Structure formats: C-alpha cells, structure tokens
Amino acid sequence: MEGVFGRRSWVANSILFALYHVHQPWGIPSSVLTGLLYTFPAYRYRSTWMSVILHSGQSVYFAILVLGVVSGLA
C-alpha cells in the first residue's frame, strides 16, 4: 500500500475499511472515521496488532453492553 499511496497509505486503508462495510450504507461515513482510528496506529507502529486490539475492544464492549441490556442489568 505504501508503494502506491505513499505516506498516506493509512487513509487509503481507512477508505477500504469503509468499503468493506458497504452493506451498511448509513454507516459508511462513520466507518471512514473508525477506519482512520484503526489504520493510523497500524501505520505508525508498523503492525496490525494495534488495529486488531482496537477492533476487538469495540466488539467486547458492545457484547457486554448487549448482554447487560438483555439480562436486565443495564
């Protein structure tokens, strides 16, 4: 990616992240912003682990929230 897009390859990756979520067209703008949040640390630290951790953290947060609502705790 960096060979094609240069130093802004993380922006191109965030757009690709948004296009991956095209099945939710109402969420594409927020997917671009979320993609920026996920791809910049991967670009900065040269590892996708930070993006994996951030994406997993978001999923765990929403899973706990949904379980709390369903069980009546929240």
CA radius of gyration is 15 Å
User: Low-confidence parts lasting 5 or more residues at pLDDT below 50?
Assistant: none
From the spread of the alpha carbons, the general shape counts as elongated
Which H/E pattern describes the elements? HHHH
Distance between the termini: 43 Å
Q: How many distinct domains? A: 1
What structural class is derived from the secondary structure elements? mainly alpha
Task: Report the strand count.
Answer: 0
Number of helical stretches of at least 4 residues: 4
Question: Can you describe this structure?
Answer:
It contains 4 helices and no strands. It is mainly alpha-helical. The chain has one domain. Helix 2 crosses helix 3. It starts with a helix and ends with a helix.
Please name the defining characteristics of this protein.
77% helix; 4 helices; mainly alpha; single chain; 74 residues; elongated
Write the layout of secondary structure elements.
Elements: H1 2-5, H2 9-20, H3 28-45, H4 49-71
Helix pairs in contact: 2-3, 3-4
How would you sum up this structure in a few lines?
It contains four helices and no strands.
